[in-house]
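Q: Sequence in, structure out?
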Amino acid sequence: MRTTRSAVLLGLLLALLSVPLTPAAPAAAHAALVATSPVRDAVISAPPGEVVLVFSEAVSPVIGRVQVLGPDGRRVTVGEPVAQGATLRIPVRVPDRPLGTYLVSYRVISADSHPVAGSFAYSAGAPSATPPEPVAVDERPAGAWTPAARYVGYLGLVLAVGPTLLGAVRWPRRRRRRAVTATGYVGLALVAVGTAGTWVAQAADMVGVPVGGLSRGDLAAVAGSDIGPVLGARLALAGIAAVLLPAVAGGRAGRGRRVALTVVGLAGLLTWPLAGHPVASPLPPVSILADVVHLAGMSVWLGGLFTLAVFLLPGIHRRVLARVLPAWSRWATIAVGWLVASGVGQAAIELGRPGALFGTDYGRLLCAKAALLAAVLGVAAWQRRMVRGGGAADRPRRVARAAGVELAATAVVLALTAVLVQTPPGRTADTQAARATREGVAQTLTSGNYTLQFDIYPVRVGVPNSLHAYVYTPQGQPLPVVQWTVSLALPSAGIEPMVVPVDTPEPHHGSAEISLPARGEWTIRFTVRTSDIDQATVTATVPVG
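A: Exactly. Output:
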């Protein structure tokens, strides 16, 4: 009993350590396009030599799916785009007839393996008489294929882990283990099927076509992405586990094989967070650890419960059941404790702020999952009291019915989990909303020495607002800046100019985080020095509603 309490307390400690480390401000995941150069819908004097896209997190371009079309509809992209963290550069050649509207189309993969796609236009000289219209792009053409593959994989984990553990450690001596070994094999097969399904879904999302339209080349392209090696490792680990499983589940393996299978199992569990939200969280090591613990707790609890209900309770002798149930109850308590503790830690990180719990799709799905799981844990607590009171062995049918209720409800929980991992986390709600509604201000300002394009998003009071500014020569070429001076003022409220610290991620690119404490017509002033003697100031008005 002391061991059980210690394990549960350690799990709760993990959750408590995760919560204070979570930043108050939303972090990035499910990358969103936050700035472009040229600015979306801007009219510039001459076509630039490159188009720059800035996302909310690191991205990698999908080869052949990032392009710029000139006014005549021909592709003007030169070579392949280059990604440097969250910045994507698209080299562009200047066509013979440069005036008109250009269309930029992109499809990239974010750090958490989710695709991001879209398009926008800008014009050089003047807009075309019939400018091309950016079209809505389906970012997830795989549709329900991805959560379905996840669900199959989760079921595989449940059937592979729980039965193997019970068969290796707590199986009655005179009870045949063949069914347990077969169940473990079915679980590993489902893991492989779910992994293959995830591979296919990732291919569809990468190239932007439905699953039925994929080619062999599209499927092979996944191997070169960040998620490809992770899925490949999962399949390899499932194959190794299949070799070790018979001896371990059959109770014939020595300590070496048991340890080897445990290591393989933990490595396999690690592949799930490496292909999902935890990789792009504000605290990747904590998120990855919490996800592995969460999956392990789920697999031990539900897999053991399935084994108990299907293979042990029917026809087992009362005295044998009296020995098995208390041991299983202790295991289940530990597994559930770690499951809940790691879930609390994950929720704190992925939500980012309390308002996201009810104000986002992710939060509402999380609430539904938590409510259903709480009901299941209520049934499990009732069973544990009955086991501790010694009455469970005399009522195997009642225990079996309760276990059936738990399994049916947790099947729904797993389905919600499969949908949840494909939903943008609550901490990214502000970024996602800004992308969807195109909140923000984008303008082009001109002086005698340069052209300046700036973009501020989401232009709201009381939240961090990101500013990106780019400087070009009158001919449209990037112009390095020696010194930036940016200030904000609200004359109507008597707020004098406030100087904003500026970072320079590129020679011609300045960025800053600005705070707008009041509503009104703000004046933003850029003083840009491009050499020892060349300096000019431009101003603009930014309405903050």
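Residues 318-351 form the longest helix (34 residues).
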